[in-house]
Automatic annotation (TrEMBL):
Signal peptide (from-to): none
Enzyme Commission number(s) of this protein: 1.2.1.27
Protein's name in the database: methylmalonate-semialdehyde dehydrogenase (CoA acylating)
InterPro entries given in the database record: Ald_DH/histidinol_DH (IPR016161), Ald_DH_C (IPR016163), Ald_DH_CS_CYS (IPR016160), Ald_DH_N (IPR016162), Aldehyde_DH_dom (IPR015590), MeMal-semiAld_DH (IPR010061)
Coiled-coil region list: none
EC main group: oxidoreductase
Tree of life domain: Bacteria
PANTHER family: MALONATE-SEMIALDEHYDE DEHYDROGENASE, METHYLMALONATE-SEMIALDEHYDE DEHYDROGENASE [ACYLATING], MITOCHONDRIAL
Lineage: Bacteria, Pseudomonadati, Pseudomonadota, Betaproteobacteria, Burkholderiales
Transmembrane feature ranges: none
One Pfam family hit: Aldedh
The UniProt record lists the keyword Acyltransferase: no
PROSITE patterns linked: ALDEHYDE_DEHYDR_CYS
Amino acid sequence: MDATTTPKAQVATVKLLIGGQFVESKTSEWRDIVNPATQEVLARVPFATEDEVNAAVASAKEAFKTWRKTPIGARSRVFLKYQQLIRENMSELAAILTAEQGKTLPDAEGDVFRGLEVVEHAAGIGNLQLGELANNVANGVDTYSVLQPLGVCAGITPFNFPAMIPLWMFPMAIACGNTFVLKPSEQDPMVTMRLCELALEAGIPPGVLNVVHGGESVVNAICDHQDIKAISFVGSTKVGTLVYNRASLAGKRVQCMMGAKNHAIVMPDANKEQTLNALAGAAFGAAGQRCMAVSVAVLVGEARNWVPDLVAKAKTLKVGAGVDKGVDVGPLVSCAAHDRVSGFIDRGVSEGATLALDGRKPTVPGYEKGNFVGPTIFADVKPGMSIYEQEIFGPVLCLVGAEHIDEAIELINANPNGNGTAIFTQSGAAARKFQEDIDVGQVGINVPIPVPVPMFSFTGSRASKLGDLGPYGKQVVLFYTQTKTVTQRWFDDSTVSHGVNTTISLK
């Protein structure tokens, strides 16, 4: 973490959002938000104090009293307006995102758009928040269930998708009738704050959405606060495991989407050009900083001869600043991330993998201070190597060989992570075998990054996820609501019984 100091007067400061107002933090701890292509300081973000976190939660708790009673249709109309505002401001949002996070402008627009899809889904919440009714389950007895909001919910989001992932969280929670406290990544919170401004403009009432910034102490405060009922987290496995354990012990509902090591099987019958394009895009897009990035390709049979073709395809990608036209691979988010990824490449070489394409120290004219690592490919990778076992979170693709599909599936199932996987083949039989036998929550068939659209739910599994229910879609409605079941009987003179019934029967 960067050293924290008093904010410089000439640099803009990121505000907190409490009770519908953007307020200056009173903290003494601040962090620079740095453009990863230039090292320019864009703004300063505060690490909120304990009192400020408590104020945000108190605001959300008070707002819940009225928001929970707001009709579903009225809540939906807020998000109809919100999606319109996001569309109208798409270019501005993408520009902010690129400046602070580094991804290319087209990829930044994609980041916003995938979040926008969830906002659109939130606008149709009435179709998802339906209960059930069984009439006359016993003599004159009806039973029905309703899905009621929980109260104050919270979200902790990562640096790699500063638009999409916050939009995975607070729109669905708020549309379900809850109020929300969001803690975005301290590395790139500016696009998140602009999205919150638009949310207020769309009609979200004061206190329904609040934002605090900070690091470990703020995360711990969210986990411990007795008035927060549920927490959604996306980030590293290390932090997610701590959040899940701490918040669960505090009696909260928790869902944590965490680290990954996503494999793609390449069968020898796969469409070669399509597969090479898909692997290069999924491995090196966003500089590999995606929890759904393909970081391991398992080349089966004759596909093991495709290594030179993959290298040639990767060499066609342009490395540069995200604002420049034609750029495919932007910088890593920070100097620390750059050093970490470069260190993994060094270790891969020392452990005996074949460095088929070295992306270290690329030449990017005009951006000599940028955190750039170009597409990197390792061949002859084996389980046990650090580059295979650990999530690198950079533009590094590991290539593993397999004799046949059973060996490839066994290799993937032996990995503890289960975020996403894919197969490239023209064989329906191979694809069906893969989807049946693979033990991973999200499966792509000739689709490298199988993140489902919002009418479904994100369904990472095993070590990539803690908690039963995924973000957005039908599952998250269950996460953000409490099912209340009511059993009722109304008597008239003809149905009044006489005498005391000491059994559990409803007859």
